[in-house]
Amino acid sequence: MLTSRTETSSVELSGTASHRRYSRQYGSYVYGTGVLSGSIQESEELELSASAHYRHEINADVVDDVAAAIDPKSVRQSFGADAAATWRASERSVFTPSMSVERVSFEDSNRLQSYDRVGGSLGYNRQLNEYTSAGANFGTELYRHQNAADANVLSATATIQHKLSPTMEIEGALGVESVGGNHEGQLSDSSDRQVFLTGNGSLCRRGEWTNLCLTSAISSQPSGVGSLERRLSGGVSYSLRMGESSNLGLSANYQRSSSVNDLIDEPLTYMHARAAFDRKLSDALTVDTFLDYRRRAGIASAGAASAGINLRWKTGRN
């Protein structure tokens, strides 16, 4: 990781590269990620941020996606970028426009379809009192598939954040999504569109040494089979700070997905559990260990368990 920070700006570059060889049917792969991000404080009222990423992933590892069930031997590549602004219109009101683009492709697969995604949103939040803030978010996502009809999602949600105590906070968003197709570059009319519930929520307790969070979400997401899928998820995470240099983390997540347009007949369910421990050996060097278990049930049931030890080296200036 490389970082550079000043009083009004920051830039960070991080990445991983790994080689994996399977003992049986999957062969060997090189995979990794890279992320470049930055932000600048233009004034007391305006902050700008942007990031770009590249990911090269093995589908056999991505059990929470229908593409992994269809063709686990394929390799997923994604390039993307996003930009956002935070404008404080007053002491209590904040506007957050954002946009993003991404291209996802699948190597060595004739069963999965690449797609491009373009999205944008506008959020508004107002501090109502010392404990509560509320707002709204409006967004759109456009998807262009390689060999299938294009799709679009229009969404509107209401948001709220409330502090129950100095250490406990609840957040939530609830609204609707309108999902449709694109015909000759035009959005489909209202008779062809489907309307779904969308939202997310979290309840977190954050202490000096421990954090505990419960989360849930429901939304429409892209898949690698030329359609959108509905995802319902829930999870719990716990972290413990063990002294000045060590941390323990535990998490468990469950997800259920189904195709919007019935391209996939059977819904898929996923479970992911993870335990991790890290220890800072010096200002630049950290060692971490992890144990992962993932299970998918549905079209092609599968499970995966993995464990590892990583060394992370950080350089740069703060």
Automatic annotation (TrEMBL):
<protein>
    <recommendedName>
        <fullName>TonB-dependent receptor-like beta-barrel domain-containing protein</fullName>
    </recommendedName>
</protein>
